[in-house]
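User: quick one, sequence for these tokens?
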């Protein structure tokens, strides 16, 4: 009887294995759900922010609530998030179309000349304009390659992105005989902020990984390598089926 009861009782290592599986499944579920949930939350919040900023400028007759009340009754109240983004999308297209025309270029040039005469406003406007042109420009102005540079002192290496070769007085005034290269050293986990460094060409080690793969490595604080199976090799290129 004692032996039968001993056999029916589950061993400790089986319970540990069960808890380990539950824990592993829970962590895997978090890895799957958290990026999806955060992406949906950020996108939903962004649409709400756009709506709260754009819809007050839309005439009340064109508000989505007006259409629902007209067709479904005065008591109808439906909040559709994202309508402001639609208005903003078409309004931006219209402004871009005007800016490309002769009249739009003339008005824009006159307005920028007016802003240039304002001491504080011109600094803010010129900075924001340069950022917008860099981010949204359709030209292929992007980082060339990912690289390694010694920073903040010799013996410590950091991932950076090669911008271009240094030109003009920057390259002429640096007391080095070799060509200087401008690199952008991003911060972790936010790669949009960082440092602009001018480094001698010989002090740069170019990497095989792409700029996108290096950015993922920076954002993940070194946890996500380009090739998960063998981090010592470049990322695998999937073969077409």
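Assistant:
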């Amino acid at each position: 009887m004692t032996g039968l009861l001993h056999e029916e009782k589950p061993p400790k290592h089986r319970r540990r294995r069960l808890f380990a599986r539950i824990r592993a499944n829970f962590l895997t579920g978090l890895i799957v759900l958290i990026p999806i949930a955060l992406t949906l939350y950020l996108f939903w919040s962004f649409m709400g922010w756009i709506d709260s900023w754009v819809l007050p400028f839309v005439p009340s007759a064109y508000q989505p609530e007006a259409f629902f009340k007209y067709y479904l009754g005065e008591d109808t109240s439906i909040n559709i998030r994202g309508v402001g983004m639609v208005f903003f999308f078409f309004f931006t297209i219209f402004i871009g179309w005007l800016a490309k025309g002769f009249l739009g270029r003339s008005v824009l040039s006159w307005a920028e000349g007016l802003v240039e005469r304002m001491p504080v406003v011109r600094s803010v406007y010129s900075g924001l304009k340069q950022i917008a042109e860099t981010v949204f420009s359709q030209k292929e102005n992007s980082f060339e390659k990912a690289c390694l540079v010694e920073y903040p002192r010799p013996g410590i290496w950091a991932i950076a992105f090669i911008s271009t070769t240094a030109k003009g007085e920057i390259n002429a005034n640096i007391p080095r005989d070799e060509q200087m290269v401008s690199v952008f050293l991003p911060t972790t986990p936010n790669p949009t902020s960082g440092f602009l460094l001018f480094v001698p060409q010989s002090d740069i080690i170019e990497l095989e990984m792409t700029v996108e793969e290096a950015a993922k490595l920076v954002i993940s604080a070194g946890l996500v390598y380009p090739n998960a199976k063998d981090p010592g090799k470049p990322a695998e290129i999937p073969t077409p089926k």
